[in-house]
Amino acid sequence: MSDLAQIKAAARKAAFARRKAAHEACRGAAAGRLSEVLAGYRGAPLAGYMPIRTEIDPLPAMQEAAANGPVCVPVIVGEGQALKFSRWWPGGAMKDGPFGARIPQLDDFITPEILIVPLVAFDRAGGRLGYGGGFYDRTLEGLRKAGGALAIGFAYGAQEAAELPLEPTDQPLDMIVTEADVIEFGRA
Q1: Average pLDDT over all residues of the chain
Q2: Which residues share a beta bridge with 94?
Q3: Which residue from 18, 26, 44, 180 lies 20 to 30 Å from 35 (Cα-Cα)?
Q4: By three-state DSSP, how is residue 138 classified?
Q5: Which spans of this chain does the record mark as coiled coil (predicted)?
Q6: What is this structure's pTM?
Q7: Is 118 exposed, middle or buried (0-12, 13-18, 19+ CB in 10 A)?
Q8: How confident is the model at residue 27 (pLDDT cuts 50, 70, 90)?
Q9: Residues forming the annotated binding site?
């Protein structure tokens, strides 16, 4: 394991512990700020995610958005590939996908313009530490080359890190939304 890989693994471990504590303290009452932010983008194709483990839950905001436009969730199609996004709606049939995340029963792929991005840790410069598979980095790079996408990291404030071990391939976020703050980076 390289030095950077070891540093990233240690940063992830510390961030997972902070996220778990925040998740236990918050208990699901954190999507209000995200709903407020998304209200400014009504009708635009939106990618959310189905929360796993101690991830902050975007579902209330996704349900609101679905009343005004298409909402989709990520589908992992293979290692080393970008994500695809299948249309989701509240109450729609779901099945188990890779890594424990639920995905729509039927594939109905769309291209999102706005992505709510899960993460392990973030910094005040828009840096994001994910799970290590590079799925969102590849996806954001491709969407940005094809014309753009707004990447909104959604996390507990406790997931903030002073500094993250980042690589040139790590795609920055345009905005971070926490249970208490909206942090914009001016890239959108």
Answers
A1: 91
A2: 104
A3: 18
A4: helix
A5: none
A6: 0.90
A7: buried
A8: low
A9: 8-12, 50, 55, 128-136
CA gap 106, 109 in Å, rounded: 9
What SS3 class is residue 187? Answer: coil
Give the residue-averaged pLDDT of 141-168: 94
pLDDT 10s digits, 99-118: 788 999 999 999 999 999 99
Q: Could you tell me the pLDDT band of residue 28, with boundaries at 50, 70 and 90?
A: low
Cite the annotated binding site for substrate by residue number.
50, 55
Model confidence pLDDT, tens digit, residues 69-78: 999 999 999 9
Is residue 16 classed exposed, middle or buried when 0-12, 13-18 and 19+ CB atoms within 10 A define those classes?
middle
User: Which domains can be identified in the chain, with CATH numbers?
Assistant: 3-183 (3.40.50.10420)
Residue 26 has pLDDT above 80, yes or no: no
Dihedral sign from CA coordinates of 44, 92, 22, 134: negative
| Per-residue exposure over 160-177, b if at least 16 CB sit within 10 Å of its own CB, e if not | bbeebbbeeebbbbbbbb
At residue 15, φ and ψ (nearest 5 deg) are: -70, -40
**How many angstroms separate the CA atoms of 33 and 40, rounded?**
12
